[in-house]
Structure formats: structure tokens, C-alpha cells
Amino acid sequence: MLYSCCVITQGAKRDAIYDLQRSSFKYIPKAMTKVLSLCKKGKSVDFIKRKFKENERIIDEYFDFLIENEFGQFVDEFDNCFVPLDTTANLYQGINYAILDYSLESKYLLEDAIAQLGELRCEHLELRFYDFVTLDFIEHVLAAVQGTTISSVYMIVQYSEQLFVENIKKLHEKHPRMIMVICVGAPKGFNKILKNNHLVVFYTEQQVKDENNCGVFSKSYLTINTDFYVESLHYNNCLSNKLSVSRFGEIKNCPSMDRSFGNIATTTLKSAIENSDFRDLWQISKDKIEGCNICELRYICQDCRAYRRNKNDIFSKPLKCSYNPCE
Ligand code: SF4
Ligand code: SF4
What we know:
By secondary structure, this protein is of the alpha/beta class. Helix content is 24%, strand content 17%. It has helices at 30-40, 45-51, 56-68, 110-119, 135-145, 165-174, 226-234, 269-274, and strands spanning 6-10, 15-19, 24-28, 97-102, 124-129, 152-158, 178-184, 192-195, 200-203, 242-245, 251-252. The strands form two sheets. It has an eight-stranded mixed β-sheet with strand order 8-9-7-6-5-4-10-11. Helix 4 (110-119) packs parallel to helix 5 (135-145). The two termini are 30 Å apart.
């Protein structure tokens, strides 16, 4: 019997088992899923071996693989061994994640936007600075987060000598809600990562000068945990409960989307999200997206509705994914 946190997702050519507790996954052949479906019906190992008697060795290999990877265990009685995973849809109607983009062109005040996000009871904030900002400026922004509902801050900043690890650590001591800093445009060969329980600092040579870098699929970006899995089963795993302000002050689902729900200079975040259209994209789960709906990675892979293969089709496959589940 598979543990409740180990779930199978079927793809066009092969399937995958996600281990939601250990944040890992393995590809499995479709034949293994078939064997596991018999197990799920309470059929014994002997029964399965008799059924596929020409493939007894392969069946043994399948069970060895499952036990070695600790995806499950042999049980005497199948029923009621493990409490099933609760996959009930439960969408919070408010905003819990916000992206604020900022560059030299920006005319809005970050602290005002942050105060409004606090009023909306937002919990997570991503700040993306596309031009160089000083440490003092970052500290000033982080001070605005204090006393709000925002409990974690992720940041993309342009590399500067001020942003050495020691300075970032000191900033984190003062502002522990800042839990991730990605310094882009670092000098060649300066790729570095600091990771501890409370803070991740990552330096990369990659240039990020505007919102166009978002939406890239990579296997290293997969998110394997229960919350993300359950959200992906029912809703859009990038845009549900998300609100963004572009560097030009436009209030959008994400800064890369075309549609604006007003400019923050004249519209409050609250009134923008009260527009019923704002939530439309939240309902586009992976199962509704062409190409993703046959992919075994679909419930651990973040969607992108801004960059699509077919710009005229909101259900079209993410443009920046080259993975082909049929190959
Ligand atoms: S929809 Fe695409 S571009 Fe927008 S935040 Fe999500 S991944 Fe990024
Ligand atoms: S974007 Fe779609 S097709 Fe590409 S890996 Fe993710 S789920 Fe699969």
C-alpha cells in the first residue's frame, strides 16, 4: 500500500509518483501504475504475480523499487491502514501572495502598496527590483512590512557590492520576515548560495531587467508538497490568491499579464480585486490546460498564463516549457 503522501499522477507516456512529504518524485512505467491499482483493490502480491506470471521478475522489481524508495509498505489488511490525503478544494477568497515590481520608471510608493496589502491580509510578498537600489532603500521598504500581516518576503535585487552576504544577514537579523534574496547580475564566477533554516541568499550571473524572465519551466523549479499539489488539483497554482503591481503601477494578476485592473495611482488594490473578472484565471487548473493535462508533472509544476504558446487561447500550454510528455 502506498503511503498517503505518495501519490501517482498519470501522464501520456509514463506516470510519476510524488512523495509530498520528502519533496521528491520518480517516474514510473504505466505497468507499475496498473499493478498498484490492483494493490489498491486489495489484491495480494501472489494474485498479481499469478495474473502476470510471465513477468514475475518485473513485478518483484516494481515492489523492490517501491520499498527502496519508501513509497509504501506491505500490509496484511489493505483497508484503513493509512488516513487518505485530504484533497478537498478549499479556496481562500482573498489575496495571500503579492508581487510588487519596481524600477526607475516606477512612480508608486512601495510602502503605500505594502500598507494596502496588509489591509487585505496578504501573507507573502515578492519584491522584484529591476534597477539598482541601495541597502538603505531595501531596509526602508522592509520597515514598511513590520506590523502588517505579511510574514515572508522574497526579493530579487540587482547585485551591488553593498549586497554581500554579511550585509544581507545583518538585514535579516533586523527584518526576519525577509527569508529569500536573489541577487541577479552578479559578477562572472560569483555564483554562490547561502542556506540556513531562516534565510536563503542566492547570487547569480543571470540578468533580470524586467518581468519577461518569469514563467520559465525547469525541473529544478518543481514544487513538491501537499499544499501545492492540492491547490494544483483544483485551481491555478500560480495565480490563485495572487495580486501584482507592475513597475508601471498597473494592478494585475501578474505583472506579465496584459490586462490591468487599474493603476495604483488612482485605484486601490481592494477595489481592483473586487472586480469579479480578477478571479477568473484562478479557476484554470492544470487539467484544463492543453498539453499539461496529459503531463505527469502537472500537479508539481507551476503554471504560467502570461506566456502561452497561443496568445489567443487562455488554455494554451505555457510558452516557456519545452517538456513533451508524449516523448
Ligand atoms: S503567470 Fe507566468 S509570468 Fe505571471 S507570475 Fe505566473 S509564471 Fe510568472
Ligand atoms: S508546463 Fe505543462 S507540459 Fe510543461 S512540465 Fe509543466 S505540466 Fe508538464
